[in-house]
């Protein structure tokens, strides 16, 4: 398998997963032209598009890609109705593509119908989990987003987090400002800063690493509770997450 990320728009990534026989999947095509260019460059044959949610920066390229490949299967949650989807998916659905089994995970919070697609070791999680951060809570609730992150956090350490945006550096700037004494986060920030100065991609990232540097996956950390002035004994985890997310929303870079 070959996994590549295609930068589109300001900071989006379209993911392409290709098999040895040249068949490939396209995940969250916010634009068509860069995707078509890469497919032609490698001589790949797309078989399906997977959509995680309905936002235009994840779906705008679908119809143009379908003009060139009208037989493509397009998968997505019900909220992507009208975006070219023919196969609607929900929690627990399973299907096979490229000889791989994909499992659909309902991951609401950013949007109400957001889903993620898991095929070990790949997780295409759209705008739910980012490296060192998580998506904004637009349509759902902080509790829903927390539960979605916990669902992802139960996957194996080796899971490759294929997020849809290059937000790693800005997430780490916030994490360092909020938790300046965490040396693991600071070290990772310095590594990512060098990568981004060279315009290098920081994704995918391994879940094993995210458990160490992503404060949104560390809601049991007593030091985080203290930094939030929350009860370190009688705490409710999703409320810890909610307080963290509010701080991130208000953070000025």
From TrEMBL:
Note on how the cofactor is bound: Binds 2 Zn(2+) ions per subunit.
Record field: transmembrane: none
Binding residues for Zn(2+) 2: 57-58, 127, 165
EC number assigned by the record: 3.1.2.6
Keyword Zinc: yes
GO molecular function list: hydroxyacylglutathione hydrolase activity; metal ion binding
One family name in Pfam for this protein: HAGH_C
SUPFAM superfamilies: Metallo-hydrolase/oxidoreductase (SSF56281)
Residues noted as binding Zn(2+) 1 in the record, renumbered to the chain: 53, 55, 110, 127
Catalysed conversion reaction: an S-(2-hydroxyacyl)glutathione + H2O = a 2-hydroxy carboxylate + glutathione + H(+)
Cofactors demanded by this protein: Zn(2+)
Signal sequence bounds: none
Single Gene Ontology BP annotation: methylglyoxal catabolic process to D-lactate via S-lactoyl-glutathione
Superkingdom of the source species: Bacteria
Chain ranges of the Metallo-beta-lactamase domain: 11-165
Pathway: Secondary metabolite metabolism; methylglyoxal degradation; (R)-lactate from methylglyoxal: step 2/2
Keywords of the record: Hydrolase, Metal-binding, Zinc
PANTHER family, A to Z: HYDROXYACYLGLUTATHIONE HYDROLASE (PTHR43705), HYDROXYACYLGLUTATHIONE HYDROLASE GLOB (PTHR43705:SF1)
Job of this protein: Thiolesterase that catalyzes the hydrolysis of S-D-lactoyl-glutathione to form glutathione and D-lactic acid.
Oligomer and partners: Monomer.
Family, as annotated: Belongs to the metallo-beta-lactamase superfamily. Glyoxalase II family.
Designated name of the protein: Hydroxyacylglutathione hydrolase
UniProt organism field: Candidatus Erwinia haradaeae
């Amino acid at each position: 398998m070959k996994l590549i990320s295609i930068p589109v728009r300001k900071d989006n990534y379209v993911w392409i997963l290709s098999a040895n026989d040249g068949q490939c999947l396209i995940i969250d095509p916010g634009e068509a032209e860069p995707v078509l260019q890469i497919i032609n460059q490698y001589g790949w044959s797309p078989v399906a598009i997977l959509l995680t949610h309905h936002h235009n920066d994840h779906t705008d390229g679908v119809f143009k890609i379908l003009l060139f490949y009208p037989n493509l299967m397009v998968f997505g949650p019900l909220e992507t109705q009208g975006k070219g989807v023919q196969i609607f998916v929900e929690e627990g659905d399973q299907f096979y593509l490229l000889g791989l089994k994909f499992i659909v995970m309902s991951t609401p919070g950013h949007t109400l119908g957001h889903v993620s697609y898991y095929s070990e070791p790949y997780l295409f999680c759209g705008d739910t989990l980012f490296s060192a951060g998580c998506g904004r809570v637009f349509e759902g609730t902080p509790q829903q987003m927390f539960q979605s992150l916990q669902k992802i956090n139960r996957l194996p350490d080796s899971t490759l987090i294929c997020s849809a945006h290059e937000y790693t550096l800005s997430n780490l700037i916030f994490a360092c400002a909020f938790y300046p004494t965490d040396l693991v986060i600071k070290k990772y920030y310095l590594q990512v800063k060098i990568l981004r100065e060279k315009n290098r991609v920081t994704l995918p990232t391994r879940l094993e690493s995210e458990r160490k540097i992503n404060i949104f996956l560390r809601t049991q950390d007593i030091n985080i509770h203290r930094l939030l002035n929350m009860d370190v004994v009688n705490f409710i985890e999703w409320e810890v997450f909610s307080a963290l997310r509010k701080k991130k929303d208000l953070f000025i870079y």
